[in-house]
Design a protein that fits this description.
It is a single chain. The protein contains nine helices and 14 strands. By secondary structure, it is an alpha/beta fold. A hairpin with a 7-residue loop joins β12 and β13. It is globular.
Length: 327
């Protein structure tokens, strides 16, 4: 595989975490950083060894030596940033959630396909060795036909109406921030979106969902029970129940252990990885580009859009709209 010059668009918190994974990724070169603040871009570049720093996203997108751009802005700005990069012919890895709603996601996907350029949602959990192992076990029939999934992701954020998490203008709330992990996990296991959704949202004083509970129903008697919160600490666990056993993933969104329970008893499979594991999604992007692929078969764009449509339904069923969606 050839080397690939990576660029970071928006050097915020998630970009720091991603870059630590990129630093140990074979064939990945930390090449450029773009920010609306040149000093911030330069500081990030200096910290992690990026070669170039730009004071605008436009300048970054125009650099002909960039092979891949990781879009790390807050999600209300994903559409604008990703489309800017795609229009300049740059492959894009876009942080999750992919967009705020399905309309935005559709426009991003349409642009990528029109430009014949690679685009993938950075659902990093999906590429972790432990998660891939769980999928391998399911495919092999280790727990039989899947009938039910339970997944939760909740943490207690101190209430701050000015913060991104509690701001309607920034599409805050639990569903888009961490509930996306639950929905993407269920989508990965079942390979499709639910036929029916029952949901409840606790809408806080600022107008965002502080907790979301959803029951997803599928044909063939399959279901999923999902819970997210920005006001409650939860177990961060996923359990996949099959007719012949079950698989438990502690801290599933950053999983390093698979617990397989079936007729052979309990098997614990430990798959630790260096850093948090963001390197595996970077490896996937480069592998796809090496093969000339325009999207990942593990995180395909149609599935990304389907997950966004499911999130829209949950929000809209609970009358949760962000201010800019009503304009």
């Amino acid at each position: 595989m050839k080397t690939y010059n990576w660029a970071i668009l928006a050097p915020g918190t998630i970009a720091h975490r991603f870059t630590k994974g990129l630093a140990i990724t074979p064939n990945a070169i930390p090449y450029a950083v773009g920010s609306r603040d040149l000093n911030r871009a330069q500081a990030f570049a200096n910290e992690y060894g990026y070669i170039k720093a730009y004071g605008s996203y436009e300048e970054l997108a125009q650099d002909p030596n960039i092979d891949i751009i990781y879009v790390a802005t807050p999600h209300p700005f994903h559409e604008e940033a990703a489309i800017l990069c795609l229009q300049h012919g740059k492959p894009v890895l876009c942080e999750k959630p992919f967009a705020v709603n399905a309309k935005q996601a559709s426009r991003m996907i349409e642009c990528a396909r029109a430009k014949n350029t690679f685009l993938m949602e950075a659902m990093w959990t999906r590429f972790l060795p432990a998660v891939r192992k769980a999928m391998e076990l399911i495919t092999s029939g280790a727990i039989g036909a899947i009938r039910h999934i339970i997944a939760d992701f909740g943490f207690r954020a101190e209430f701050d109406p000015a913060s991104r998490l509690f701001s309607p203008d920034m599409a805050g709330g639990s569903l888009l921030d961490v509930g996306i992990y639950n929905l993407a996990f269920s989508s990965m296991i079942y390979g499709r979106q639910p036929d029916r959704i029952q949901s409840y949202m606790d809408i806080g004083s600022t107008g965002v969902d502080e907790t979301t509970a959803a029951l997803l129903s599928y044909d063939k008697g399959q279901s999923a029970q999902l819970f997210s919160s920005i006001r409650l600490n939860t177990a961060h666990e996923a359990v996949i129940y099959g007719e012949a056993g079950h698989i438990r993933l502690p801290s599933y969104w950053c999983a390093k252990t698979v617990l397989l329970h079936n007729k052979n008893g309990l098997q614990e499979i430990n798959l630790p990885c260096e850093t948090e594991g963001f390197q595996f999604e970077a490896i996937e992007v480069m592998a796809c580009l090496e093969k000339g692929m325009k999207e990942s078969p593990i995180m395909p764009l149609d599935e990304t859009l389907g997950i966004m449509q499911t999130m829209d339904k949950i929000r809209f069923d609970n009358n949760l709209f962000y201010p800019f969606e009503l304009m």
